[in-house]
Amino acid sequence: MTDYGRHNSFNDIFHKYYNEIRASSPPLLGLYVFVTPVALITDLQLAKRILTKDFGYFHNRGLYHNPDDLTGNLFTLDYDRWKVFRTKLSPSFTSGKLKSMLPTFVGVSKELIKVMKLDIAEGNNIFDIKDLMLRFTLEIIGSCGFGCKTHSLQNPKDQFHQLIQNSFIGEHNGNVTKLLMIAFPRLAHLIQLQYLPANMIRFYTKFVKDILDTRKKSEVRYNYIIDTLNEIHIGTSDRKLTLTEITAQTLIFFQAGYETTAFTLTYALYELARNCEIQERAREESFRVLKSHNDGVTYECLSEMKYLQQVLKETLRLYPISPLIIRQCSKDYTVPSHSDILISKGQMIIIPAYSFQRDENYYPKATEFNPENFAADRSNPPLLSFGDGPRNCIDFAIT
Length: 399
Description:
The chain is of the alpha+beta class. The protein has 15 helices and six strands. The protein has helices at residues 10-21, 44-51, 79-89, 95-121, 129-146, 159-165, 175-183, 185-190, 198-216, 225-234, 243-274, 276-292, 299-303, 306-318, 353-357; strands at 28-33, 36-41, 324-328, 333-334, 342-343, 348-352. The strands form two sheets. It has a four-stranded mixed sheet with strand order 1-2-6-3. Strand 1 (28-33) and strand 2 (36-41) form a beta hairpin. Helix 5 packs antiparallel against helix 11, helix 9 (198-216) packs across helix 11 and helix 12 packs antiparallel against helix 14. The longest helix has 32 residues, at 243-274. It is globular and about 65 Å long. 31% of the residues are buried.
């Protein structure tokens, strides 16, 4: 693959190959990233089987992770350590826990409306929706996950907001560095490449330490994510967590919920602005359901907004938060119904969620925004935006 660069993302390249070969219906396509062999999965049933039934062969992502730069987290860790964290953290994402967080969601939403009204009163009628949604989701994650206010809604230049933005892969690394981390994770670790800048590591580690110190002085438990991690940290098990490990897990929750949620909301608002009839239908449903609940936003109220859920699913279909799902084969795997095709131990595989979700074999007029794709009377189309199987997104697993 030599066409990766400024104008071509990995997703662009894999989507191009997917479209070129899908007519011939092979289950996968072999490619090289540098000298690393990669299998691009082009058969949807095979992709789902890899993620679910045959998970035992593909339970690792094979991604670069380094405990020293906060990348040893729930997303990147190999299976044994991942399983420990997943088991311990899953209770923080039950429906009951999310229901208890709803008043915080509502409170931050009211704060968002207040900020927008103040801007309008000052004559600012044009909003940077992407930036506004980033600040909105950061405030929610800070409040619900860690019991702290980031003040990012009121202050776009807030230091924490700026540093979290810089914590994402690619903000300070060039293309060559990113390629090395993806194609040669062991080499990247050996030569001490880092995803995150040193100032981000120092700032965020201090942020988590200060919260933990505050928790030690209080006997009240609020069921925040940080409380669950702290229990493991100070627990009596043989394997307690270090401060660095706790910091890495909390950072991935910021990363996983911050940019992904903000971008989904941004794309949803974009599509609603382009499709006025869909916007009006979603608005009418919202007002009608709210009225039936005395204008109170409750968990049950949101669950009744079926069309709005269709809008969000259709947004995720067209703009998946994880367009490429990466797995590493942990032992030799013979492709079902293709005994002549072997995926070798250690080989990386790519499942192109973006390509499957824009394939007209599954969605008529696949590039158009159409929430009816997820109407109750439709068959279950592919939606891999949160992954699938045991290593899907932890908060999506309970929805």
